[in-house]
Specification:
This protein is an alpha/beta fold. It is 33% helix and 17% strand. It has helices at residues 8-26, 40-54, 70-81, 90-94, 117-125, 184-190, and strands at residues 31-36, 58-62, 86-87, 99-103, 131-134, 156-160, 174-178, 201-203. It is globular and about 45 Å long. It starts with 7 loop residues before the first helix and ends with a strand.
């Protein structure tokens, strides 16, 4: 996207907004546990938390590995300014929230899941609250899906820009497309459907 003049900050803001709007289409306002990874997928989750707060939800963050990059520091500072708390006891929060957002690993994930996220995925797999995955369910291969059998099984998948190949293995209730920022030329190449009105998200299934 950089060849079109977009910055990573712009893309992350638009992606996170579309995540929050997708959630608001299907789940009532309540306590939302956002599990944040150390990369761009986690950045999308931090942005989504801020927007969910404005939408009347009660977000909390599980963010065990916080990068030193200015971008991620700024996103966390924004969450702090919105009084979005950081939590450390994932199991306790997973059992007391109304919704869980998986923003841990994105399309660049490969190999096996390492600490502390291996144990975190174990907690999330057994949580009773509905789970929403951002772009790709954590633990999945971007092409083949949950090849190791240790990935998450979300109730909602929010594909960003375009569905990844692994989305064909998604068996949850809601599949949304988010990120209404693709230029016409790229949208044609990707086969991106038309978004309705001013919506930042679109239900695919």
């Amino acid at each position: 996207m950089s060849k079109y003049g977009y910055t990573i900050e712009q893309l992350m803001e638009l992606a996170g907004l579309s995540v929050a709007q997708s959630i608001a289409q299907e789940y009532p306002a309540g306590k939302v546990l956002l599990c944040i990874g150390p990369g761009n997928n986690g950045g999308d989750g931090l942005v989504a938390a801020r927007h969910l707060k404005h939408f009347g939800y009660r977000p909390v963050l599980y963010y065990p590995k916080q990068p030193a990059k200015d971008l991620f520091r700024s996103l966390l500072l924004q969450c702090n300014a919105h009084h979005i708390p950081l939590i450390t006891d994932l199991a306790e929060e997973a059992n007391s929230c109304d919704l869980i957002v998986d923003a841990i690993f994105g399309f660049s994930f490969h190999g096996s899941v390492r600490a502390p996220f291996d144990s975190a995925l174990g907690v999330l797999r057994h949580a009773k609250a509905p789970l929403v995955s951002v772009d790709i369910p954590s633990g999945w291969d971007v092409e083949a899906g949950d090849v190791h059998g240790t990935g998450l099984s979300p109730d909602m998948l929010i594909s960003l820009t375009a569905p990844k190949s692994c989305a064909r293995h998604f068996k949850g209730r809601f599949h949304y497309l988010g990120g209404r920022f693709v230029p016409p030329e790229m949208a044609q190449e990707l086969g991106t459907p038309q978004f309705p009105g001013s919506a930042q998200c679109l239900r695919l299934g």
